[in-house]
Model the fold of this input.
Amino acid sequence: MTKNKSLNFLLQTLGCLISAAGIYSFAVAAGIPVTGVAGISAILYRLFGVPMGLSNVLINIPIILCTYKLLGRAFFLRSVYCMILFAISTDYVLPLLPVYQGDRLLATICAGVVGGIGDALIYMNNSSTGGLDFITMAIKARHPYLAFGNLTFAAALAVIVLSGAVFRDVDSIIYGIMFNFLVSTVINKMMFGFTSSMLAMIITDDGAAACAEIDRVADRGSTILQGRGGYGGHPRDVVLCACSNKQLYEIEHAMQALDPGCFIIMLQSNEVHGEGFRQLELGKNENRTE
Done:
């Protein structure tokens, strides 16, 4: 989430519209099983013509009541807004627009990418469209180290199999797994990949000079740890610096020019919390004081 509430609201709204388009205009139109409560709503829609938005809201009510205390009032209000907008989009807005009726594989790819982008925009603003999102958000709040895209993928498997069994369509199970894999991959990439940081570990004889050079070329802080060579036992400085991919390139070349004998280790870091880095507050209960 950003500090600009208007921007957060706009991104949530955009995410709902995009997510609804991915499900209704691509997945449901091609008979592809989708995730969670939306998947159950899609089954009811295909079997009995029950509006997806209406069934989505009704099924969500007991789930919301069970997870409200853990996720908090602010998350609840944002999610209710997204859930209602999602329902309006699928029941009234998108039926007025053309749906994709081409190749089923292309529909699966488009549904996964479009739906994943929409869901990620919603999740990045600490909100959801309800359903199993509430349950996976609650799990994420309890176990923040779990990858959210993996949680959503795991929660979707039961609905995929159910849809395939109901409509006796084995191919739909395969397409459903592809769809949900794409959704989870796009979610993880948008929420963590594009803003992920790198960790540079620089082993050198002059840590102070390395820190000064890092500050000069990348304007980033760094930390010096005291190390010792495993073979000769000579003291060495280990400089740690969290930075972006572009800054890592600049730091690497600066260190090689400063100390050609230095040893540089570059590590991928999905999340860095602290000054100068965006912190994702997924599933965070703003009402808690503990």
